Amino acid sequence: MTADLLTEAPLPSSVSTRPMDDLDQLEAQSIFILREAYRKLKPLAMLWSLGKDSNVMVWLARKAFLGRVPFPVMHVDTEKKFPEMYAFRDEYTKRWNLDLLLGYCPPVEEIDPSLPPAARSAARKTAGLANLIEKHRFKGVIAGIRRDEQATRAKERVFSPRGASHKWDVRNQPPEFWDQYATPHEEGMHIRVHPLLAWREIDIWRYIERENIPLVDLYFAKNGKRYRSLGDQDITNPVESNASTVAEVIAELEGSNTSERAGRAMDHESEDAFERLRVAGYL
Amino acid sequence: MDMNAPHSAPAPQANALRLRDAATPIVIVGHVDHGKSTLIGRLLHDTGSLQDGKLAQIVESSRKRGLAVEWSFLLDSLQIERDQGVTVDSTRIPFRMDGREFVIVDAPGHRQFLRNMITGAADAEAAVLVVDALEGAQEQTRRHAMLLRLIGISHVIVLMNKVDLLGYDQEKVAAAEASVRALLGQLEIPVDAVVPASAREGDNIAERSPNMPWYRGPTLTEALADVPAPSSRSNLAFRMPVQDVYRFDDVRFVAGRVERGQIKVGDTVVIGAHRTMARVAEIGAWHAPVQAAAIAGQSTALRLEPDVIPDRGDLLHTPDAPPLRAARIRTRLFWLRQEPLRVGESFTLRLATAEHQVTVASIDAVVDMDDLTERPAQEVPPEGIAEITLAASEAILFDPFSPGSSDGRGVLVDRLQRIVGGAPLIGPAELAPGERSIHPTASRIEASDRARARGHEAGVFWMTGLPGSGKSTIARAAETILFSRGIDAVVLDGDTLRAGLCADLGFSAEARAENMRRAAHVSKILSDSGQVVIAALVSPSAAERAEVGRIVGEGFAEIHVATDLATCEARDPKGLYAQARVGKIRDFTGIDAPYDAPTAPALSISTADVSVEVAAAQLADFIEQKVRVRDAG
């Protein structure tokens, strides 16, 4: 990786008082959200899945807190990730001076057998996450989901309360407007904080380009295929692509009309598989 | 594995030449079944914004449920929504038209989902109000239009839907349009366009309808394209509410978002209500060019000199343009709680990052949703819209609400940290001549914490019954029993009150009502402090007892001491019945003044056939069961 703390700053070529463009606005809103979470939810942690959105989120935290990430980052390890992802994790934990917490997932045999196979496999992560949250009694967990990824996620709140069972009560979500967010008011409750909710896939990539944020190179095409979204090895499939740089990925997305999660098996197993996962506490 | 970032070369600054605007949020509102979801499906389809495979998915989901293509399934992503045919929560869909980005916000039309509509609509730049041309404006049309005005949506486009069912008839459409225009005119909402359309058939959505050659206005997509981009707030007076204060590596930074105006290094700022002044020494940033200024919309961090430590919520402003300052504020209100709002209730007013303890000093007007007239009322009904006055114990710095800005965006939060209302602040409340400003304060101790400390919850047990029915005797005996069980109870009985607090009161109807009112307020204060209150007053009027229940609120229970008149008169412990019978006392309850027995008391006790001990034990058991904090599990 060429970027390190000193050289990773080829700065946006801008005058400081130029009007804000769309990425500036998304960045400013995400920083606002992260600062609200840091102020209101203690203890707080951020989920770091090692994917592109997650890296953007860590990056935004460093923007919010002037170069630091002042809370732990959690990697909920299914132990089925790609080897490149583990190498990336180890390198950037050091480079970014992250306080890394690892969580491990129970074996698939312990998961609800009525779920379709890929969803059942993905649900391991929910269980692993729940264990970590309970162990550390986190009041806030920052997660990098976006509304445009999946229709169920489009219904989410920026601050999404979870009861003691970690369930998402979609029928009874609190009002959220004028940048006023829910706060936990009951024992055992925590808030899922979603600073990237308003970002779209293309925004993430344009921001990665602008800020020169490092990524696992599985996102870039080799032999005509690349990963658009990274999950476990056994339930994520690469897409056809020749995009081997960030700029090429952006160009490809500008012309694309398919869903980012097209390569995620669990989204296609049954109409409600993803909804069931989310209601149970999946991201 | 190649860990070298494939994009290590400096990224081409393709975007530097042209500033991209943020997406324009457009909220779609309207009465249930007037066709919001169908419209959104049609809009996405006709503008080529549907993802590949999405149409096939919708066709399949519809077929499974035996429906023709159901566009609403695009938005109703949850299985419950599809199966029950209702949208339970607002959703957002990005969409692009002629190079401009929009975000469509779909807001459910069902009344009980008002909070979701507000959640979706509060930051929209424009709204499309969908009205069924056959039905015209309905209850939710009025309510949504009112809310659009309250939350300050600057641009409203009316879509007269389902005109195919009117045979595309110009006169019929014109009649429907006139009624909607009258409604919006009454609310003083400017209308950008009224588009006659059929979302199902695609008339005048993205393409000009061949069925309405008489219509010369814009199609929906043309009207959307005409919505101007939000205007910059950088030229207004500077405001930055303090979000947090960080101390990293021995340097202190004041973090916050510039809500309007701009601030430069070297500028002087005034901090909060205490009016401390400081100079901006540095604008902190990481991985960004050195900043000489921060502008509206930016989340920034200021290093101040001298190194003062503001609190979260302090408003930073420049000395030349201070905000308003008042401890009593008039505000509009959209009320989201399922129970009514009453005068005297206390809340936290969240205003940007500030939190102020406030009490509802008066309810000045409530909007009647049937005809949109405003009238004074005792309470704001669930999901009602009103104008109220809030009183705080200290001066609040604020700017009046202004559409398109974050000024004056108050939000009311209850003791359980629930957001219960939106309060676009109007301005300082004027006091009527002779009226004195009062500033009630609210306790910071939660009722649940008091209950935990005492081992029991509070409550007001209001005993009503004829004179001589045994109220005070039972109350005093129950007090003793409860005390022995570790429950702290206090008795308020009529004669004791009249000996002191109410010594100035006689027995006229007005004086009796005042006696009740005072007893109710004392009960309320005591129960707020965690006490169990047993009140023993004849309280003959059902209406007055209802008023007591209103004053006390949660925890009120009516106990009927149902000893019959003959027994009471036979006992006559104070000799009052005898005097009433010979006319020495007038308006004596039970003799020549009415007693309204409770129709549904929480408990009814008769002392005619049981001893005082048994009756007191009944009451003590009832109270204990109501207030005892149950162990978890």
From TrEMBL, chain A:
It is an enzyme of class 2 (transferase). Residues 44-237 form the Phosphoadenosine phosphosulphate reductase domain. Gene3D superfamilies: HUPs. Pfam families: PAPS_reduct (PF01507). Its EC number is 2.7.7.4. One of its GO terms (biological process) is sulfate assimilation. Keywords: ATP-binding, Nucleotide-binding, Nucleotidyltransferase, Transferase. GO terms for molecular function: ATP binding; sulfate adenylyltransferase (ATP) activity. It catalyses: sulfate + ATP + H(+) = adenosine 5'-phosphosulfate + diphosphate. Belongs to the PAPS reductase family. CysD subfamily. NCBIfam families: PRK05253.1. This is Sulfate adenylyltransferase subunit 2. It comes from Tanticharoenia sakaeratensis NBRC 103193.
UniProtKB/TrEMBL annotation, chain B:
SUPFAM superfamilies: EF-Tu/eEF-1alpha/eIF2-gamma C-terminal domain, P-loop containing nucleoside triphosphate hydrolases, Translation proteins. Its EC number is 2.7.1.25. GO terms for molecular function: adenylylsulfate kinase activity; ATP binding; GTP binding; GTPase activity; sulfate adenylyltransferase (ATP) activity. Transmembrane segments: none annotated. It is an enzyme of class 2 (transferase). It catalyses: adenosine 5'-phosphosulfate + ATP = 3'-phosphoadenylyl sulfate + ADP + H(+); sulfate + ATP + H(+) = adenosine 5'-phosphosulfate + diphosphate. GO terms for biological process: hydrogen sulfide biosynthetic process; sulfate assimilation. The active site is at residue 539. InterPro entries: APS, APS_kinase_dom, CysN_GTP-bd, G_TR_CS, GTP-eEF1A_C, P-loop_NTPase, T_Tr_GTP-bd_dom, TRAFAC_GTPase_members. Sulfate-activating enzymes, NodP and NodQ, may be physically associated. This is Adenylyl-sulfate kinase. It comes from Tanticharoenia sakaeratensis NBRC 103193.
